[in-house]
Structure formats: C-alpha cells, structure tokens
Amino acid sequence: WWNQAFEAAGYIDAFQVKVLPDDAHHLDIRYNVINWVHRSTRGWSYGGSVVDPRTGEIIKGNVLLGSLRVRQDYMIASGLLAPFDEGYEQDPRMMEMALSRIRQLSAHEIGHTLGIYHNFASSVNNRASVMDYPHPKVDIINGQLSLENAYDEGIGEWDKRTILYGYQEFPEGIDESYELRKILENTATQGLLYISDNDARPAGGAHPYAHLWEYGDDPTSQLSHILEVRDIALRNFGEAVISMGTPMTYLEDVLVPIYLFHRYQLEATVKLIGGYQYSYNVRGDNQLSPSILDDDLQRKALKEMIKAVDPNVLALPESILDLIPPRPAGIPTSREQFRGNTGPSLDALSMAQTAADAAIGLLLHPQRANRLVEFNARENTLGLEEVIETLLGSTWEQSTKTGYQGVIAEVVNFVVVSHMIELHTSSQANPLTKAKVLAQLERLLDTLEERKDPMAKQASLMIDSYFENPSDFEIPSSLPAPPGSPIGSDLMMCGY
Ligand SMILES: [Zn+2]
C-alpha cells in the first residue's frame, strides 16, 4: 500500500515488500522486517525504527505484528453476523473481515517505521489515513448487517501527503523550506485534518473530530448508527454466533464486544459536549484557530449520549438472559468476560451498570464540566446545569418502571448519583463547577424526598452521608469493562 504513496510523490516502485531471504537474519540492520509474532494474548502490534541519533535518518524499520488479534476480529464478526444457523456452515465473511483488518494493521505499523505518527482525525476525511485506529464499518442493508466495507483498502490521502512532505527530495537551487510549507498549505486547503494522540486519547478530550476506533464524519449520527447496529446484533444474538460443538459458555466471550459495541463511539460523541475545535496551526498558515464548538452540535450530542443509558438500550433481549452457562471445569474464566456479583449466573445488572458508567462517567468528566461552565459563561453555549438537568430528567425524574427494565433504570439512577458525587469531590473540578454540582445534588434530594420509595431513600442516604463526611465517603464504583483495545501496556501502543 505504501508504494501508492511513494508513487504519488514520484518514486516509482520505491517501496516493495518481499519475503525475507532464507539466509537473512531478522535483526540484520540491512533489512526492514515485518515479524509475525505469537503472544500470550491479543496484544498490541508495534512499528518502530532504528534511527541514527546524529541525523534522525531511519536506518531500519521493524514491525511486530501480533497474530492473536485475528481471532478477536473473527469473533466480533461472528457476533455481528450470527452466521451458524445450522452450526456447520463455512461462511467466508468473518475470515474476510479479519484479513482485511490485519492488512490495514500491517500498513499502520509500517507507517510508524516510516516515521509517521497517528492521525486520529482521519475518519472525518473518509478514512484518509491508515495511521488512525479503525472501527469495523458495519452497514445496515435491508435490516441485515453487512461487513462488506468493514476496513478500507489501500493507502489514504493523508498518508500520501505525509510521504510527500517527509520523503520528497528537491533539486539544487530550490528553496526547500518554502516548498515544504507549500505542501503543508495545500494539505490544509484540501481539508485534511491532523490531530494526534495527546488530543484524541484523554477521556476529557475536547476535539470534536479526533477519536480512536470510530468512523464517519458526524460523531452524533454515528452513535445513533452504532446503537442501531448493536441493537440488530443483540436481537440476532444466540446459538448461531458459535459453531456446533462449541461450549455454550463461550457465548459470553462473543457477547462482550457486541454488548459494548458502542463504547468507543461514546468516547467520540461526548467530545462534542464542551467541545473545542482547533488545529496545530502555526503563525501565517491557513489552518483553523481555536473556537468553542457550535451550540447546536453540543446539544445534539448530549441527546444521543443520553439515549445510550436508556433501559431499553441496556437491557439484554430476554432470549440471551438464560442462554449462557458458567465456565465448566477445564475452561478457566478470563479477563475477556464480564465480571459480576451474582455467582454463576450472567450478571445482567452489573453489565448494564458498566455500560451506563461508561457514558455517564464521560459526560461528567471534570475537565468537560469545567469547560461547560466556562464556555456557557462566554458564549452562552450548553452549560453544566443543563447537562445535569437533562441527565436527571431522563433518569431519576422518570416515572418508575417494573420488571427487568425497571431495575436497570434504578441501576442507571445510582450511576448518575455516584458520578455527580465523584465530580463534586474531584480535585480537577474547579469551585464553580463544584458549586453547580452541589446545587444539582440538593435539587435531586428534593426529588428523592417526593418519591419516598426504597430506591429514593437509599440514594438520599448516599448523598446525605457524602455531605456529612465527604472525605470518608466511598463512592460506589461499577465493575470495570473487559478490555476492548488490544491487551498490554498502554504506554507502548504502536511504538509511538
Ligand atoms: Zn500506531
């Protein structure tokens, strides 16, 4: 794929991939190498370089491509497609998706060896870079899920520009710094965005278009789409996601990424709330200066985030609840499963709590809350009071329901109280933010007073005991979600 970028820069067949000669050693400095490695689990892959410290010249590129992620991708595809109706089908779609993912991943790691950083803003430019973290693109065709276009093929427009900038050689007499500046300007004029790790990864991030594991150019409508995909997959979920003879307990492993299918889109969409648009502009260039995100976009994002904690969304279809037995002797439990507090049965309430926690924790992140207070004062955009009022309006202030959905609604209500207290007590929250949260907690106490039922009393007790002794109060926490990203040290992701 990278040859496409070098050819676009005028270097014909400059970049080639071949099988390593039998007599070559993979550590030989003369060879750039892609190593196919087996690990204890689905670890990160890495792309690194041996660099001459005197000049910065890349001497050797070295990729470690982990093998086990292919299995995870295959499993996610099985969970989405539920292809094993009879149990013995040979369906090529899962393998095709897994292979298209590993092709994309190898191009990504090779990109690092060429000296290229992540660009997490490429989704908004129609998957313009292999240096983003892609999420499988799932299309809904006549109510069915399709993985036909799950991963992009070939090098992206952004990648061509980075090779042009980094590898172009200029003839004698040409002003190199002027020409390089021109490449940057033309890239910006083409509308290609660039935002990297420091702005895309943090939970308190503000850039509306820099996200990991997502696609699409509008994070809000994309959350709606992803929730619809998840809903279809959950309704189709059953024996048909595993082949005949597979222990039924493995259904839980397949269920985890489907139930949490929207987790990364939540991280993306929430960045529009208290959102701040910017580029890494330099004096004299034509890139965007920082600005508060349009109020309308912030409100739409809030509405969609709230939908993600609706009991309808968090409830599993009844058909799944009694489908999955615990692990038998000989098959150990693993970190890839949901943790629960119900012993052998699938803890559907803890699952709902974990999923609700992801959305509400992001919404009430202290950095986001501080920005909401400031931006609202400056430009009258969406404020923190309104965010919390909307959240309470769709949780504690709803009439109580009965049955399974009723208990899920109560689980979500308690997650809301916990995160309000957590925000109030956070050392990152400024006093203005704390004051607004305090007012909302007091308002909630009034609402709870009116309800008088045991759940309301329990929540009042929580808030009262926090007020009485804030420093000793232990905020109830949700069980952590099983890993979504590859497993291993977060500090070493992709080698950059
Ligand atoms: Zn990477």
Main β sheet profile: 3 strands, mixed
Counting helices, strands and paired strands, the structural category is: mainly alpha
Which strand-content bin applies to the residues? 5-15%
Q: Provide the helix percentage.
A: 40-55%
Mean pLDDT: 95
Tally of helical runs: 18
Rg over CA atoms, rounded to whole Å, is 25 Å
Please provide the ordered H/E string of secondary-structure elements: HEEEHHEEHHHHHHEEHHHHHHHHH
**Strand order within the widest beta sheet:** 1-3-2
Distance between the termini: 21 Å
Instruction: Provide the list of bound ligands, each named once.
Output: zinc ion
What does this structure look like?
Helix 1 (2-8) crosses helix 4 (157-167), helix 7 (219-236) runs antiparallel to helix 9 and helix 16 (403-425) packs antiparallel against helix 17 (431-451). This protein has helices at residues 2-8, 69-81, 93-113, 157-167, 176-189, 197-200, 219-236, 251-259, 263-269, 295-307, 311-314, 318-321, 348-363, 366-379, 384-393, 403-425, 431-451, 454-468; strands at 33-37, 46-51, 58-66, 139-141, 144-146, 276-277, 291-292. By secondary structure, the chain is mainly α. It has a domain at 341-480. The protein is built from 18 helices and seven strands. Strand 2 and strand 3 form a beta hairpin. The model has no long low-confidence stretch (mean pLDDT 95). The strands form three sheets. The protein has a three-stranded mixed β-sheet with strand order 1-3-2, covered by helices on one side. A two-stranded antiparallel ribbon has the order 4-5. It binds zinc ion.
